[in-house]
Recover the amino acids of this structure.
């Protein structure tokens, strides 16, 4: 259940009726057995009358968030009779399924055999050197078929979606560290973004998605040590009515949006210890609204990460690789960030006509749960170009997010846009506003198959939620062709390394204490003035071989080799106000200095 405070905020933001109805959720859990008492792995558990739910793990256990008004669940598995059960909140459900195939399953078995026979005959006639594939195990979905059976059908999209090579999982090396990607943060390149959205094609895209470049209001909250304060609630009002709500991230930044700046505008900033109201609201053109509180460093030590993944057939060229990458990212982050308690979750979505619409693994501090869940997923279904993006995103946003966290992130992995109708567009607008109000960054990861319209919408989502934009590239040679990003000045990275970097930097709680250093080289480093208005002076001692300047998310914006003791000037004039990091490299060690760029320096 969400707090009363947030409820009032959500309703004031005028979300769609459908979105409001789905706002209050409860968690249900249980175990599914056969009649012999053995756990059933891979059974689907849906809210009765829907295709939204989850799957049982290797122990037959399931857990998911459902709308508060939910009374019954439907539990299915191939080879067993479906069963409807009443929800009980006091204890976990124990469900026993009886064996027995349905008529639909028998018909589908026959269709599979005929299809397999036809494919074998076709291969023999074409003198294929490949041997017929062995019969594969039953699908984990009660009325579905394992996706390894079927060849994906090409869609009508000109991008050639759905054309997947006929290779089994065992024939493909899907180890992590192969996919390549880039990152671009339009908030840090605001002038370029504003010029882009004024171009005719992009204006049409904004009208198509019913989103546009609104007035940006940036807020930057620090304490008496000039260090950022995370997780402050920031509300913008016009004539007493809430216009937009956001939360500061670990860099102390919050982004708010309005159609226009009126005379009766105000900003209300609430930290754990202080509250401040300003009647002077500055747009991004005028600068950053900087708030300074007298407050000790006490950033939350909790972070929550959700992966929302398009699992339709067109993702078949990359989904096995993506699964490996995501599992690797979770493992790396958990082992490298010991001072943060992470919760992980995932939603896989398809489309309305498929075996399922969404399946979820709710946020949990037990990373093995989400790792097992991700491992069970495969690509299938779909067929047309757009998919149920809004349904997958809604399931993620309706999880039990904490109200005190250093970071909340939804990674949205997809290769197709949402459907284009008024209900979906209203959902997306509500979801963007809700994510902002909860302090949830939406970070898209676009795969092969997206078009320019989809890129625009994804970039817009990231901008409105203070996130960043990630895209796969052709450098890996994996999957179908990827859309060249509209920007060219980006660094190609391994996807897993990029995501680890982004998560690590967005979840850094900071410290009020001096950084520990046992390298005498670092003792002579000087960075001033801090905060700075424009130029940052850096005294680099002998022994340092490289310095870099990165954004708070770790995105590289300047790198310079050093051969001797020197003074370096870094010009931050054209960068937005906020926190940046100067990194010094020496003898395989790195020393970092956080600096504040502020128009009030």
């Amino acid at each position: 259940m969400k707090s009363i405070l947030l409820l009032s905020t959500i309703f004031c933001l005028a979300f769609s009726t459908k979105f409001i109805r789905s706002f209050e959720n409860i968690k249900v859990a249980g175990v599914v057995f056969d009649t012999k008492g053995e756990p059933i792995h891979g059974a689907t558990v849906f809210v009765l009358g829907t295709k939204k739910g989850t799957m049982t793990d290797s122990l037959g256990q399931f857990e998911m968030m459902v709308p508060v008004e939910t009374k019954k669940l439907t539990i299915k598995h191939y080879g067993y009779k479906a069963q409807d059960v009443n929800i009980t909140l006091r204890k976990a459900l124990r469900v026993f399924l009886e064996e027995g195939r349905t008529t639909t399953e028998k018909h589908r078995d026959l269709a599979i055999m005929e299809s397999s026979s036809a494919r074998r005959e076709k291969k023999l006639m074409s003198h294929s050197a490949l041997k017929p594939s062995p019969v594969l195990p039953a699908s984990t979905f009660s009325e579905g078929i394992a996706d390894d059976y079927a060849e994906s059908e090409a869609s009508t999209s000109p991008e050639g979606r759905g054309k997947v090579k006929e290779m089994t999982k065992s024939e493909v090396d899907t180890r992590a560290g192969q996919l390549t990607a880039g990152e671009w943060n339009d908030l840090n390149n605001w002038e370029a973004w504003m010029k882009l959205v004024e171009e005719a094609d992009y204006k049409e895209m904004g009208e198509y998605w019913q989103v546009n470049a609104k007035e940006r209001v940036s807020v930057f909250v620090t304490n008496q040590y000039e260090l950022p304060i995370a997780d402050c609630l920031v509300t913008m009002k016009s004539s007493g009515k809430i216009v937009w709500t956001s939360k500061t991230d670990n860099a102390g930044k919050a982004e708010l949006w309005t159609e226009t700046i009126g005379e009766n505008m105000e900003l209300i900033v609430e930290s754990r210890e202080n509250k401040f109201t300003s009647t002077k609201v500055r747009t991004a053109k005028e600068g950053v609204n900087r708030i300074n509180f007298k407050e000790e460093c006490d950033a939350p030590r909790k972070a929550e990460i959700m992966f929302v993944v398009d699992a339709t057939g067109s993702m078949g060229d990359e989904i096995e690789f993506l699964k490996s990458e995501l599992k690797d990212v979770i493992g790396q982050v958990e082992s490298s960030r010991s001072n943060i308690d992470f919760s992980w979750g995932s939603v896989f979505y398809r489309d309305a006509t498929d075996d399922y619409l969404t399946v979820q693994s709710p946020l949990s501090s037990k990373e093995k749960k989400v790792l097992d869940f991700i491992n069970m997923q495969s690509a299938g279904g779909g067929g047309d170009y757009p998919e149920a993006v809004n349904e997958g995103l809604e399931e993620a946003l309706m999880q039990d997010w904490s109200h005190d966290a250093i970071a909340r992130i939804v990674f949205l992995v997809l290769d197709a846009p949402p459907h284009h109708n008024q209900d979906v567009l209203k959902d997306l607008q509500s979801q963007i506003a809700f994510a902002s109000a909860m302090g949830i960054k939406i970070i898209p990861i676009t795969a092969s198959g997206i078009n320019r319209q989809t890129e625009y919408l994804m970039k817009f989502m990231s901008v409105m939620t203070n996130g960043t934009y990630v895209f796969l590239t052709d450098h890996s040679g994996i999957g179908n062709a990827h859309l060249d990003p509209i920007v060219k000045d980006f660094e190609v990275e391994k996807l897993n390394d990029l995501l680890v970097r982004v998560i690590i930097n967005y979840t850094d709680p900071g410290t009020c204490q001096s950084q520990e250093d046992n390298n005498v080289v670092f003792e002579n480093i000087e960075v001033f003035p801090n905060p700075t208005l424009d130029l940052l002076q850096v005294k680099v001692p002998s022994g340092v071989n490289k310095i870099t300047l990165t954004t708070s998310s770790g995105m590289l914006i300047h790198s310079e080799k050093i051969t001797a003791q020197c003074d370096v000037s870094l010009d931050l004039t054209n960068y937005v106000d906020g926190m940046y990091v100067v990194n010094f490299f020496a003898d395989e060690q790195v020393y970092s200095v956080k600096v504040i760029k502020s128009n009030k320096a």
Remarks:
- The mean pLDDT is 84.
